[in-house]
Amino acid sequence: MLANNNFNAATYFSENALLPGLVKGEFDLDGEAKVMQEELEGEAQRYPESLPVPWLVAKMTRLSLDTYTHNFTLHYPLTNGLKFTGKNVYGILRAPRSASTEAVVVTVPYRPPSSAHLSTTPGLALMLALAQFFRRQKYWAKDIIFLVTEHEQLGIQAWLEAYHDTPSTGVLEHGSLLGRGGAIQAALNLELHAARVGYIDVKLSGLNGQLPNLVLVNLVHRMCSKEGVRHTFYNKEKNTDRDPVRSWLSSLATLSSMVLTQATSVPDGNHGLFHRFGIEAVTLEGFEKVGKGSPATMYQLGRVLEGLLRSLNNLLERFHQSFFFYLLPDTDRYVSIGVYQPCVVMLAAALFLKAFTFWLLLKKPPTAGSSSSVEPSAPVLFVPADESTYKKLNIVYVGAAVLITHAVGISLLSSGPRFTSALDSLPTEDALFYGFLSMAILTVIVPPVINIFIGKERNLILLNIMALLELATLLVAVSLTNFSLALITGLLYLPPTLWINYSNIRWLKKLVWLVYHPLAMLWWVVLASTAATFPESTGWELLARAFSATKHALVLSCVDNLVYGNVIFPIGMVFLLPVWIQVWLVCLSKDEVQEHKKEKTE
């Protein structure tokens, strides 16, 4: 429903200080950008696997920028003694009209010829041409930092930590910076893959689902429209289809793409690491022009960037108006948090209501013959026909079970390096996968031992309530920062969690809940993604691809958590896995009413 225009609204500017309509483009150094691109491509051949630091330093120094280099080191967390080193280069254009109290960053991730990713050389050349053009202007009230990073997101993470002197993890030595500008207000990450661009795709999703202020996104689209540059969101232009069904399907596809991307909690560009420092940032990715139509030239792209930076230069304060929480079904339509948040709240409400129902039945004292008054779907165990089967709750047992399940999750959170160290003869992916697989098997076979103490009493009813409440609370808490992750988690786990309860446990419910083990869910999600990405794959080929991708995804989840602070791995280990184990304990319970009837018959 949210993809329909009746349930979303048109975007607008609430930060009037940007003055986007008053910016008149003057950039005319597109020829210099082309020359620099040729020089850079020739220089890249001399450094096939690293950053051409001497050339960049010389070029920025010649442009009269305060030029510095930045060294950083990563101690790979999954292999003892393995280190990666990198270097960034940045130049600062000091603001002539202020005392360097504020700054704006323009960054480009450098990709050498050996990189598997598309080249960013045209974007780097354009950035240097902009620096040359901006050097002649006197209206800058903010420092402009031109940053070239190495090793993709690792380089920008190290630079940001060094700039703010706030290390986030213990595995990345961010080094120190010899020069700084003012407090960074905004950042633009350029990933232009050609000098003649077909369209600019605007990327928003950041680390842990954070998003930039919506006004910055609107500003990018406005400037692209002004200069005649095609602009897209998830590779889709503004929806102009007059057919209501096709228009809705197009908006739904765009909205779904944003939700799926945000739910991974992984940034879709270097901009995504700025958000945790309170810096609004977006990525502008330009793809080479193919087919018919007019391409966007360096001249147009330069004027787009000039307009963006001059508008940001007009900003008198930090972004604070407009929205930080939103969903976009189109380039110029948005869904506010007040509209989409009830979706997750209703999912959580179902769990709260189920838990409350169990609590009322649990508190109801057993009376003879009262089982007939209970609804068929209600757990008849709560009101057994014979009061002799009634047993009091043992909160100590339930509390111990909850504590043990969370202790297991917390121990697994930091077990990645231990698995790879213990299985050092295996590749990292295999060691990590088989380590977590063995622990997953233990989480399946060990709970019956715990059930010896609590499985024959009404304690499991309370444990069921605890699992429902924890899952509901998890959904609400996660939705406050990453709505998409909470929504998808709720849609996946809500049906089986509501279906499984203490009474009438059958083998089918146990089998279904095994399928929902967090490690198994990772496999199913990766399998679905692999099938969508490689539709031509046959059955066995698809399974092989999915198996390899699952191991790779597990490694990336651990590394992202240890290096960048991605929370999706801790959420799975510390909260979702304990909930799964608690419900599994409920699945292993015995029907005491049937046992009591059997004893009476005997």
Description:
By secondary structure, the chain is of the alpha/beta class. The chain has two domains: 5-331, Aminopeptidase, CATH 3.40.630; 340-382 and 390-596, no CATH class. Helix content is 50%, strand content 13%. It contains 19 helices and twelve strands. The chain has helices spanning 30-44, 53-62, 121-134, 153-164, 214-226, 244-263, 298-314, 337-363, 395-413, 416-422, 428-445, 447-454, 459-479, 483-499, 507-515, 518-533, 539-563, 568-587, 592-601; strands at 9-10, 66-75, 83-93, 102-109, 143-149, 172-173, 183-192, 197-203, 231-232, 280-288, 326-330, 333-336. It is globular.
List the helices and strands and how they pair.
Elements: E1 9-10, H1 30-44, H2 53-62, E2 66-75, E3 83-93, E4 102-109, H3 121-134, E5 143-149, H4 153-164, E6 172-173, E7 183-192, E8 197-203, H5 214-226, E9 231-232, H6 244-263, E10 280-288, H7 298-314, E11 326-330, E12 333-336, H8 337-363, H9 395-413, H10 416-422, H11 428-445, H12 447-454, H13 459-479, H14 483-499, H15 507-515, H16 518-533, H17 539-563, H18 568-587, H19 592-601
Parallel strand pairs: 4-5, 4-7, 7-10, 8-9
Antiparallel strand pairs: 1-12, 2-3, 2-6, 3-5, 8-10, 11-12
Helix pairs in contact: 1-3, 3-7, 5-7, 6-14, 8-13, 8-14, 9-13, 9-18, 10-11, 11-17, 13-14, 13-18, 15-18, 16-17
